[in-house]
Request: fold
Amino acid sequence: MSAITHILVIEDNPADVVTIRVLLDEVGYKYVLYQSNTLSEGLRLLEETPFDVVLLDLSLQDSLGFTTLKNFLKEQPRVPVIVLTGNNNVVLGDQSVRAGAQDYLVKGEFTGKRLVDTIRYSQQRFKSQAALQRRVNQMEINEKRFQEVQQLAQLGNWQIDIVTNAMYWSEEMYRILDLPLSQQQQRWSDFLDRVHPEDKPKLEAFLDEALKSGEMYRLDHRILIGGRMIKYVAVQAKLNFDEATNKIMLFGSLQDITQLKNTTPSQEVESTVVDIKTPLPKKAGLAELGFNIRTPLNAIVSLMYLLEKDKSQAQQKEVIATLKTVVDELSIGVDALLGYIVDQDEALSPTESAFLLDDLVKNTVQLFQLKCKHAGINLELKTSQYLSDEAGGDYQLITQLFYYVFTLLIPYCDKKNGVEVAFQRKEPAKNKLSLHLLITYFGKPIPVLDLADTAKSPGGVSASIVEKLLVTLGGQWKLEKKGFHWYNLEVQLPLSVSGKERKSDKPVSPLHILLVEDHLLNQVVTKKVLKSWSDLVSVDIAGNGAEALAKFAKFPYDLILMDLYMPVMDGIQATVEIRKTSNVPIIAMTAGSTKQEEESCRIAGMNAYLPKPLKPEELSAKIMELLG
Reply:
């Protein structure tokens, strides 16, 4: 509300207008008052000048009675209006409020204080009503979009009151079951009547198990349409407490998977046959492949982090650690594959960021151990120290390089004698750090190192990627014969070193984070990871860029985690809008992970770029780095 209130009085009695001025002056109210004798003149003034509130008499020269208010609201619904009535028109005043006026005043029966209070209340009430209407409109839009998405995915949702067996079906449920929409309450038995007789026992067992365990369950089964046509559906269910109704409910979904189930073997075979005339997949297709792999990987990595933090048995922790390494290997393998193919037309460019050397070494050793375990080769670690320095370099490319070096070497190792691995640290110059990977093995020399044409050598693609990564990172490798069939393979990489001591890895004051993510599972998991990091962390969630802008306008968050690909408004657009008014740190989260995408994020104003799957340790370190 402005310091000075602009008031329009639509009143044809000059004495009443003078009374209003006197009352406002008596209480020292700051205002600018305009007056018109007719409704038409008042509406014209409203078109030309913005007013905070209108005082409207219902008996005017060009309009009488309740019609005056109706015509006003039709032409000017966005301005709060207070109706002025005569002594005998209290009933008309009440009707006016129900029709859309904010309040009414009976002439001759209000004081200056009452008049000012009514003006202020009307303005506030009008704003609240407008905000509520916007929320209602947005909810209607969201509901419509949700229904459209459900129809596209042929995915309906349902819920059951486990006490009464009353069942709610979404519109898509009716479409899947080929039934007309109905307001009548459905029951579990109504759904069971449409299940194929042979599948009813396992569906009932499925329901019992979901009720007993409280876990998420899925079952594929058949339903009958019109007693003849068979559809295949996937049903999922999970027990939950509904806070809105204070009831224990079974929530679930139903998806039509008939098309998938009806795919014949011949169709599947034909789909895997590749025409040699067909060009290789384009970069956009590969990026989409990476996106589809990284998105579930992100949730898996985060969930394993939470499991790892729980006080579990030692054997459980060992299994979790192994599983974590497997996912790391899969993620790096995908990165390397996509990076190699995508970068056929464009040079690699390293992106420097700070990381802890001992983290790099530990993660690399875990990958090596897994490789050796699969190959049946014993691995002996000779590293004398895990470095605590904070170094600078492209962590992702360095990890890929070490991964491919070891992958290339494994076929030339003798299984009986094993492999020795060591990491050494050297400082050739000030603020420079040289990291050396030393691998000693018994077997055959790697011939690719002696050949100019790596495409013709054993190892093929892996060797060419190693060469490209070495050039990009400014490193080198060499192979030396140590003795009879014993060889030393050394990889040298230059890094920058900040000389900084480790800072606290947790916030020391309350940290408010806005997580902008449309994937429900990633929302839940990422929020849990952040909350488990520190009790000082609070997390709000926005499902898209537009929601993020609305939330950020209301609360000054300390940091924003921004997914890139979302409906309504993507992360890039949202960042551009935020940067118009704020320099809040923004970290991009993406399942795409391409250099072009990273550059787009930088241009938009993002402070950091983290590819999925997000490693909780890297995420927390990046947050602390940006918050200084």
Residues 364 and 604 are 33 Å apart (CA to CA). DSSP finds 20 helices and 23 strands in the chain. The chain has four domains: 5-131, 154-266, 353-497, 511-627.
